[in-house]
Amino acid sequence: MGISFRYYEEEDFLKLEELIFSSYEWGDPIWGFSRHEFSLGLHVAWGNVKDNWRHTVGIWEEAGKIVSAVISEGVWNGEVFFLFDSLERQRGGELLERMFHHAETHMSCIPKNYPTKTRFLHLLIPPEYDLVRKIAQERGYTLSEDAERSLMLPFAGREFDVVLPEGYTIVDGNETPDFFISNTHMFSFNYTLPIAETIESGFHNLRKMPGYKPELDLCVLDDEGKPVGIAIIWYDEKMPYCELEPLGVVWWARRKGIARALIYEAANRVMKMFPKCIGMLGGDQQFYWDLGFKVETIHETWDWSRKF
What we know:
alpha+beta, Aminopeptidase, 2 domains, twelve-stranded mixed β-sheet
């Protein structure tokens, strides 16, 4: 019967998650567990992601099983990701050509107000996807200076020291309302309307995702009980390491050790709950380097554009 195409359906979310778990066996996936859950959970508050995925995400099946997909975060920013059920699958040239065509036609974006009448796309490619990279070059993609580096904090089996300012405490998702997390996120990343109107619903949705664990949804409260820092950890025992997404400290409470305390508390909880977890994947800022995070993988970005 060969490989057939169809569009994403809501029931595919967990099926795609199985592809993601498989991808940890051969590398550090650019579309990982946290990105998958975070995109559907939180990005509903930004870009109506459920309908975006239903209209744009491409699924390819063989004998009733999903073998590959083209997916995005659903916020119309031009970023696109390829998923496969095995590393060997990405070496199928004919399937890749179909996936590239779908990405370019369904996920390329247009700058606001059409200033140049040009559609653009940013394909993020893990180092293991050698044929994907080759075909990208053949189709006229260019290597961007922007790369996404994955940094990891290794777990050495010992607890980290958690230090907070006097009167500050750490609580978790069993104790905090949704708006504590959304307020902290908003004041950490400094956005306002219209997202400020919907972000609480986004975190409400995020807390209903199948991979969410309230014990790993951490919040720092100041000496008045106001939330000033958040960190959420995503982990499944099919993964070698856990993933931090998001981490935020409100703009007026920075440089007090709050982010460090959140990471260390999260690490301690993960090591206690899941002793086989080898480390924590985090962001790519100097702060992470200072805490001992090391580069695990570098994912290239390849850019495509076309006038219409």
